């Protein structure tokens, strides 16, 4: 049975926003790693991790059904990641000479990265099985 | 990638964003007029992409070619994908997806100008 709940209604917008960040993070980390990885290996590696998490979250939220646990995991990892990297980028700024998606809690992206994982988790909670919505 | 062109793209995308935003508030689905408006913006974006690649190939200034090309390719993909994803949701939320797509085009057109002018990495 196909479960469309996570991509229906408001979920339609959520998946779209996740797709935008998947694209932005992937493109940014690809350029960073491809051009001057040695400049900031930690920051650029975390940038790539962020990209992978956004891709996973986008696909899992769009898929729903069996992929829901993956969506939970991706959104949780994203919440942990944005606050860990956000804090690191402030207290250990030497290792973050160039901005990433999660630097300073997503400052370069209007702080959307700091809010998005909680919208994702809230949406997964609202569309959980046995819940009318 | 001149300033007037960037402002034109920004303005066209803004019209679509506001229009789609109004339809979202009014609880309306993606309709034909909005679709055609997005199509007009898309034509302008494709023309910008072609012109942008020509400008990049012929300029003697030092422009970040990889990033600029990436933005040119991305900016023409956003609206078709956004409208397709939005129109297949038969509620106001589908229209909201068009708002997001138009906002992204606005940001990208702004960034395109910055990259072309070399004012931001």
List the helices and strands and how they pair.
The complex is a heterodimer of chains A (133) and B (121).
Chain A: H1 10-36, H2 41-63, H3 68-91, H4 112-126
Helix pairs in contact in A: 1-2, 1-4, 2-3, 3-4
Chain B: H1 3-25, H2 32-58, H3 65-87, H4 92-117
Helix pairs in contact in B: 1-2, 1-4, 2-3, 3-4
Care to give the gist of this entry?
The complex is a heterodimer of chains A (about 130) and B (about 120). Helix content of chain A is about 65%, strand content about 0%.
Total domains of chain B: 1
**Derived structural class of chain B:** mainly alpha
Oligomer state equals heterodimer
Cα(first) to Cα(last) distance of chain A is 19 Å
The whole-angstrom Rg of chain B is 15 Å
From N to C, what is the helix and strand string of chain B? HHHH
Strand content of chain B: under 5%
Instruction: Calculate the mean pLDDT score of chain A and round it.
Output: 90
Structural class of chain A: mainly alpha
**What is the share of helical residues of chain A?**
55-70%
Structure description:
- The complex is a heterodimer of chains A (133) and B (121).
- By secondary structure, chain A is an all-alpha fold.
- In chain A, 67% of the residues lie in helices and 0% in strands.
- In chain A, helix 1 (10-36) crosses helix 4.
- The longest helix of chain A is centred in the N-terminal third of the chain and has 27 residues, at 10-36.
- With 121 residues, chain B is mostly helical.
- Helix content of chain B is 82%, strand content 0%.
- Chain B has helices at residues 3-25, 32-58, 65-87, 92-117.
- Chain B is elongated and about 50 Å long.
- The mean pLDDT of chain B is 93.
Keywords:
heterodimer; A: 133 residues; mainly alpha; 67% helix; elongated; B: 121 residues; 82% helix; 0% strand
């Amino acid at each position: 049975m196909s479960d469309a709940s996570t991509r229906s209604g408001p979920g339609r917008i959520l998946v779209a926003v996740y797709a935008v960040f998947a694209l932005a993070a992937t493109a940014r980390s690809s350029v960073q790693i491809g051009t001057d990885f040695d400049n900031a290996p930690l920051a650029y590696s975390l940038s790539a991790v962020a990209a992978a998490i956004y891709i996973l979250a986008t696909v899992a939220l769009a898929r729903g059904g069996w992929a829901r646990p993956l969506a939970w995991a991706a959104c949780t990892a994203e919440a942990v990641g944005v606050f860990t990297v956000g804090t690191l980028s402030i207290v250990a700024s030497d290792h973050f000479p160039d901005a990433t998606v999660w630097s300073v809690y997503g400052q370069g992206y209007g702080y959307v990265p700091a809010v998005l994982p909680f919208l994702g988790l809230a949406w997964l909670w609202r569309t959980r099985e046995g819940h009318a919505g | 990638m001149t300033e007037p062109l960037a402002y034109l793209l920004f303005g066209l995308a803004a019209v679509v964003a506001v229009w789609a935003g109004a339809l979202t508030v009014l609880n309306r689905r993606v309709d034909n007029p909005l679709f055609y408006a997005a199509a007009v913006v898309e034509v302008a974006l494709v023309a910008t992409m072609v012109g942008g690649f020509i400008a990049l190939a012929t300029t003697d200034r030092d422009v970040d070619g990889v990033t600029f090309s990436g933005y040119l390719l991305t900016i023409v993909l956003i609206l078709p994908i956004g409208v397709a994803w939005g129109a297949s949701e038969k509620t106001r939320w589908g229209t909201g997806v068009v708002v997001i797509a138009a906002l992204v085009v606005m940001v990208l057109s702004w960034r395109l100008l910055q990259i072309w002018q070399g004012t931001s990495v």
